[in-house]
């Protein structure tokens, strides 16, 4: 950000005593008419009552309608589309669903949830993401697949190689569509959707509704049902402040902060550039602060390993670029620190939203020269 209003980064008194109106779901999971094995898996996954997005959107997907779900991460939207799609697959075993996501990490999370919700049901899936060897993915697509979860670039590559045949797809899910547009996947998304039979259903999930999003919806969805469960202000329960520092002592200031292990228990640290993020991670380790880094130059296994070490507490700090961080959902992040300024205010909101999730409070600091 070359120019910005510093007040955007300051909210020292977050609203913590506002009691959100409790949502009363209109349905229980038993009310959706789901197949018995799926209901059993839902109970096993300890999903007790539907979240607002699940409650409102599942009936429309079960009816085969195109839907637009406007929801932030952490609202249960993955299960909101997986539950009805698994049910439809159990009833019509030759169905095939394509799920497009912005990142490898999110694709893996979706497939993990799919496996959990379809355990023992003989429902098969493949992950098709960039940054990994394409050959095992080609082999996997030669087998029967009910669900294909992938990133747009790799999915388009597999279509071009005639390994993935769009003519067999019954449903397309575009998850975090706004992020896919931000990351420059618009052309791949359009090409993939254009090749899929006109009779397919499209399920569209996004946190924002921009002009580009509206254009995509208008081009590719038929009379969609729109369900919005967005919170008015996802940052209201996050304490936000700036850290003033000169360029020379910026790293020293960061180390002094992070030395307080009790306060800075689990920190997501944002840098602007891939090489800067890698260097910062190494410098923190030299300074005695266990850290991992995650960015686009790292291989898929390296990124997964770094994320796993952060999740299980082997390191307190994960240094990330904006793109690499998308699709990362880690509980109990105590602080988000903007070591480098975000490019836009929307990116700022997206970054700091990784802390203070749900009813938890969180803290965000932004370094300002």
Fold and architecture overview:
Helix content is 37%, strand content 16%. The protein has 14 helices and 13 strands. Helix 2 runs parallel beside helix 3. It is globular, with a radius of gyration of 21 Å. The chain starts with 35 loop residues before the first helix and ends with a strand.
- End-to-end distance: 12 Å
The strand order across the widest sheet is 3-4-2-5-6-1-7
DSSP strand content: 15-25%
> Any idea what the shape is?
globular
Sheet bearing the most strands, described? Answer: 7 strands, parallel
Give me the count of strands: 13
Q: Compute the average pLDDT.
A: 88
- Give the full name of the CATH homologous superfamily of the largest domain: P-loop containing nucleotide triphosphate hydrolases
Rg to the nearest angstrom?
A: 21 Å
Q: Which spans have pLDDT < 50 for at least 5 consecutive residues?
A: none
Task: Give short descriptive properties of this protein.
369 residues; alpha/beta; Rossmann fold; 2 domains; 6-stranded parallel sheet; 13 strands; globular
Q: How would you summarize the topology of this molecule?
A:
Layout: H1 36-44, H2 52-62, E1 67-70, H3 77-91, E2 97-100, H4 104-117, E3 125-128, H5 134-141, E4 147-150, H6 152-160, E5 171-174, H7 177-182, H8 186-195, E6 201-206, H9 211-220, E7 225-228, E8 238-244, H10 250-258, E9 267-270, H11 274-286, E10 291-294, H12 300-311, E11 317-320, H13 322-325, E12 335-338, H14 345-352, E13 362-368
Parallel strand pairs: 1-6, 1-7, 2-4, 2-5, 3-4, 5-6, 8-13, 9-11, 9-12, 10-11, 12-13
